[in-house]
What does this fold into?
Amino acid sequence: MRPTLPPIAVTAVDLVRVVMPLVQPFTTSFGRQTERTVLLVRVRGDGADDTEVVGWGECVTPAAPVYSEEFTDGAALVLRDHLVPALLRRDREVGAEEVGTRLRHLHGHRMARAALEVAVLDAQLRAVDRPLAEHLGAVRDRVPAGVSVGIPDGGTHALLEQGAGYLDQGYLRIKVKIEPGFDVTPVTALREAFGTECALQVDANAAYDAGDPDHLAALDALDELGLEMLEQPFGPARLRDHARHAARWRTPVCLDESIHDATDAADAIAMGACRIVNVKIGRVGGLAEAVAIRDRCRAAGAPVWCGGMLETGIGRAANVALAAIEGFDLPADASASDRYWSEDLTEPFHLLDGYLEVPTGPGIGREPRPEALRDAEVERLFG
Ligand code: OSB
Ligand code: MG
It folds into this structure.
């Protein structure tokens, strides 16, 4: 990342909430979602020559603390009462690095921080008319797209139907959400239906207990299926469980929930808890940390890939820019807009031969369509 962007003089920070219905329910081992309450951070400021710029960031928190401790109402509160005041207390001239340094004394709330970091960076980049991907050092103009398939209401049969649909559309790999009771049978069926024409991986979202012999038997059976990876079988803090079983499995373990920063990633790889790391801008507190994780993983020889949190076009634009940098060679959980929304908040992302195009406009290269914001709830945090 090039650190030379001029700061912006922030004139206002707003939280914008938009409720977005998903095109179909998304069920994981931690619950069933039918809509997302999208929390956007909007930063307004003056660039170097006093032109007004607006920057956007999407806070990827779920409504409830089911994926990690973070949840949307908590993120809104911590942004309002702590993060934004600490960022602007002494000086309203800021750059994205300040979101790291001025907030160093505050713990956690990485998704909230990340939204603020991306919004500030988006504004800075728009002020100098530079795309985020270029700023990050992108090495490709399109990124390979995977699709994350939730646990379907209709069981294995529905999973096969959905899988076939996504393969027809051209997705380059399928990730299936699993939980105890929905694992070996559906994933085996998918393997048998589509053979090895399709890269297949699974994500347990921490649903398995390494002390339960039935859980371990299911994971051992999945290990026979030649999957690309097994994502986060055990709890976020259960690194020793991951290491113990990863050593027996052929399938590489990928960690998602366990990895909060570059040190977590290096430690997890060093102890054998994973061989692959899922990088999410929100989960790790922003783009700077996401790039630092890439650096540490590369030094350790571990592949990384860009995960998703059912983002709208705002969050996806940042994800796709990140997925375009060196080291992000595996397909991202970045699907086309129509996989999530009947109408995205922004100009949509389309699947082209299994890829999403990296935005080329200034900043993240996407902004909410004004009509999409019409019914939004807006709260002023600063200015
Ligand atoms: O574990 O990767 C996950 C969505 C919400 C919370 C956690 C996860 C996910 C996904 C969605 O898998 C991926 C996407 O945005 O397409
Ligand atoms: Mg995951």
Remarks:
- DSSP finds eleven helices and 14 strands in the chain.
- Residues 203, 205, 231-232, 256, 278, 307 surround magnesium ion (ligand 2) (CB under 6 Å).
